[in-house]
Amino acid sequence: MPVPPHAQVTVRAPAKINLGLSVGPPRPDGFHPLATVYQAVALYDDVTATLREDDADVTVEVLGDFADDVPTDDSNLAVRAARLLQSEYDVEEGVDLTIRKTIPVAGGMAGGSTDAAATLVACNRLWGLQLSQSDLERLAADLGSDVPFCLVGHTALGRGRGEQVTEVLSRGTFHWVFAIADGGLSTPAVFKELDRLRPLRRVEAPEVRPELLSALLSGQPAALAVALSNDMQDAALSLRPELAATLQFGLDQGALAAMISGSGPTCLFLAADSRSAVDLAVELSESGLCRMVRQAEGPVPGARILPAPISR
Ligand SMILES: C[C@](O)(CO)[C@H](O)COP(=O)(O)OP(=O)(O)OC[C@H]1O[C@@H](n2ccc(N)nc2=O)[C@H](O)[C@@H]1O
Ligand SMILES: Nc1ncnc2c1ncn2[C@@H]1O[C@H](COP(=O)(O)OP(=O)(O)OP(=O)(O)O)[C@@H](O)[C@H]1O
């Protein structure tokens, strides 16, 4: 039976990378203050929300490359996002969620966070809540530090624990290649390892490097390559030393820069142009150093509703 309009909404949700990730000493609440520059890249999960009119249940089904690694109970971040909307706005309807996953799980690319952001956008439309972008950003911050950025997308500065997001000017398009590792890394475990490796008294307040902001304004990949930084890289490499060989391989094959993505273990490479990105992706695929390789451009917008398919 055909589904009536607005009984089903699909939202496209991008992965994020951190072009700069500066981490301060832990706060009393256990979170670390950050100064980060996020960029949304064209590697997407699609979240489809289908209305349940007869009850308030929330269900989730996960399809795609990494489906087996994603929980389908109430710990799924997309389910948590739907339930948060229900409880805050006394919603009496339910939703069936389908996540088509392309973003690696526990890969340092905010896969779960972006599914949560997409679910907020989808259910806002599905349930006719008419919440503003700033309402959604407030709810997003309750779901996770990366979730507000996943709503906003493009290139943005993240402060606080990462949830305070302001857009940053960036010119042009950058070409990224991702080496996706076997298995994931737990974000809290990588923050813990970072604290173990650094003598805390000497950890300074987090800051964004001015050369990163000017490189983004210039739109020049060579300028961006020397401005990238990630304070979590040493901690991720300490937990997964074999990733150093993947980073070095990419540099040997002509990447302008190589870095761990967020908390890892995904390795990201900046290519000079789309042609070099294809060449690098082929070499990495044949290297046997990673589970799979993906290419994506950035920046791209945050979670966005896709046009409904045309039906007869
Ligand atoms: C590593 C990054 O991806 C960089 O953008 C984020 O900081 C992580 O963001 P996230 O996965 O949305 O993290 P949350 O779900 O908010 O927090 C998960 C756990 O990570 C740690 N955490 C997270 C963010 C932060 N600024 N400091 C932290 O110490 C805490 O142990 C927290 O309990
Ligand atoms: N919708 C979801 N997609 C992926 N993982 C989810 C989801 N919901 C809950 N999880 C759980 O969250 C954990 C972290 O997954 P996620 O893919 O968000 O990590 P990440 O990309 O490293 O996060 P970040 O970059 O925000 O730190 C997974 O191990 C999984 O158990």
Properties at a glance:
binds 4-diphosphocytidyl-2-C-methyl-D-erythritol, globular, eight-stranded mixed sheet, 312 residues, Alpha-Beta Plaits, binds adenosine-5'-triphosphate, 2 domains
Task: Please outline the helices and strands.
Elements: E1 8-23, E2 34-52, E3 58-64, H1 77-89, E4 94-101, H2 111-126, H3 133-143, H4 147-152, E5 155-159, E6 164-167, E7 174-180, H5 187-197, H6 210-218, H7 221-227, E8 229-230, H8 233-239, H9 243-252, E9 257-260, E10 267-271, H10 274-287, E11 292-298, E12 304-305
Helix pairs in contact: 1-2, 2-3, 5-8, 6-7
Bound molecules: 4-diphosphocytidyl-2-C-methyl-D-erythritol and adenosine-5'-triphosphate.
The computed structural class is alpha+beta
* Assigned CATH architecture of the largest domain: 2-Layer Sandwich
Number of helices: 10
Proportion of residues in β-strands: 25-35%
Shape: globular
Structure description:
Belongs to the GHMP kinase family. IspE subfamily. The two termini are 12 Å apart. Strands 1, 2, 3, 4, 5, 6, 8 and 12 form an 8-stranded mixed sheet that branches. This protein has helices at residues 77-89, 111-126, 133-143, 147-152, 187-197, 210-218, 221-227, 233-239, 243-252, 274-287, and strands at 8-23, 34-52, 58-64, 94-101, 155-159, 164-167, 174-180, 229-230, 257-260, 267-271, 292-298, 304-305. It folds into 2 domains: 8-168 and 301-305, 2-Layer Sandwich (Ribosomal Protein S5, domain 2), CATH 3.30.230.10; 174-298, Alpha-Beta Plaits (2-Layer Sandwich), CATH 3.30.70.890. Helix 2 (111-126) packs across helix 3 and helix 5 (187-197) packs across helix 8. The chain is built from 10 helices and 12 strands. It has 312 residues and is α+β, with helices and mostly antiparallel strands. The longest helix is centred in the middle third of the chain and has 16 residues, at 111-126. The chain is globular and about 55 Å long. Helices cover 33% and strands 28% of the residues. A hairpin with a 4-residue loop joins strand 5 and strand 6. The chain binds 4-diphosphocytidyl-2-C-methyl-D-erythritol and adenosine-5'-triphosphate (ATP).
